[in-house]
Design brief:
Blueprint: H1 2-6, E1 12-18, E2 41-46, E3 49-57, H2 74-83, E4 109-115, H3 138-144, E5 167-173, H4 175-188, E6 192-201, H5 205-217, E7 221-223, H6 226-233
Parallel strand pairs: 1-4, 5-6, 6-7
Antiparallel strand pairs: 2-3
GO molecular function, one term: metal ion binding
Pathway: Cofactor biosynthesis; nicotinate biosynthesis; nicotinate from nicotinamide: step 1/1
Enzyme class: hydrolase
């Protein structure tokens, strides 16, 4: 992940953050039965889709808004804030003073996407809520984003398409849930999608294996390391 943050060819960094309210639908502790166990699942109906069931996996309470469990890892957060000061303000992150922060690469921007913040719907993907009943700000951001000029104040005026986002390099947690759903959504929105094996960890071997197969079937390109991903991203697809 650090190699990706430091590479000058990468213009936009998207940090996704689970940001669940207390009693979130994904918490076993919040299940109406009062006896549900983590790592089981059930079907439920969201008010926006009352006739179509959504499968919901149950988890231990995690990433509750405003708690330590929801925080972005401090060392990573400092690196992100060094690139775009204030980018993690919505996450409640208090960066060091400007004088204490080592400035990150120029010509790069960081945005924060908070997901899973709907009490009645989970959101594995950084693009959408489960069941596609809603979307985060990420699709619009990626489809309308333009590379900033060296002044960091104005979009560039490239006419060869080099100022737009067409390739995503994906890493994070967990391979078989959030990474999988984000990768598939990226392909649905038409982005070339490169997934970095060394930058991901999964929940269980069986679901991880299935996730890799699903990503391959959807046209994601799998590499071992960040350096391989960077080199691959600089090649044209045939």
């Amino acid at each position: 992940m650090e190699a990706l943050l430091e590479d000058e060819s990468i213009s936009l960094v998207v940090a996704s953050q689970d940001w669940h309210p207390a009693n979130h639908v994904s918490f076993a502790s919040a299940h109406p039965s009062g006896t549900a166990k983590p790592f089981t699942s059930f079907d439920y109906y969201h008010p926006l889709q009352p006739d179509q069931p959504i499968k919901q996996e149950l988890w231990p309470d995690h990433c509750v808004q405003g708690t330590r469990g929801a925080e972005i890892e401090p060392e990573l957060a400092e690196k992100l804030e060094a690139i775009t000061p204030g980018c993690l303000r919505a996450a409640g992150f208090a960066p060091k003073t400007t004088d204490e922060v080592a400035r990150g690469p120029t010509g790069k921007e960081v945005i924060l996407v908070q997901k899973g913040d709907d009490l009645a719907a989970d959101g594995y993907s950084a693009f959408s809520l489960n069941g596609n009943i809603g979307f985060t700000n990420l699709p619009r951001t990626l489809l309308t984003w333009r590379r900033k000029s060296s002044s960091h104040s104005e979009p560039s005026a490239a006419t060869d398409g080099s100022d737009i986002i067409d390739t995503l390099i994906l890493c994070g947690l967990a391979t078989d849930y959030c990474c999988l759903r984000t990768a598939l959504d990226a392909r649905r929105f038409g982005f070339r999608t490169i997934v970095v094996e060394d930058g991901m960890r999964g929940v269980a071997p069986d679901t991880v294996s299935s996730a890799w197969e699903d990503m391959k079937r959807w046209g994601c390109e799998r590499v071992k390391t960040a350096d391989e991903a960077i080199r691959l991203a600089q090649t044209r697809q045939t």
